[in-house]
Please model this.
Amino acid sequence: MAHEHKLEIFRGLVKFKSNTQKIWGVLAFLTLVTAVEVGLGIVKPESLTGTSFLGMKLLNWIFIILTLVKAYYIAWDFMHLRDEKSALRRVIVWTPVFLIAYLSFILLVEADYIYEVYKEGFVTWNF
Model:
């Protein structure tokens, strides 16, 4: 018995007639997000590189968010996560979200500590 996959993306805002069209639609979306990332990486707007948020440049936060959006859509559409039961989807999606948030917190705290040690400690900046 064949299982019918949902032929829509963006919570039903864009609907397709076949799986092939859906694959091309998701590919176009992922290509657009990648093009935005590459464009921002080449241009590096001064307003985004000079502004900091939680100890990191705003441009880096944008890169992280866009990468997570791409990872979400790859898992959601190409790995057919949308067709699974909601409990399995939550386990698969929320576990990495919490782990990434925790890892980011640890990295920011440790980086601030190392910065303070080099700034005020006996070790000098030699690199």
Remarks:
- The chain has two domains: 1-83, 85-127.
- The two ends are 63 Å apart (CA to CA).
- The longest strand covers residues 8-9.
- The beta strands are 8-9, 14-15, 52-53, 56-57.
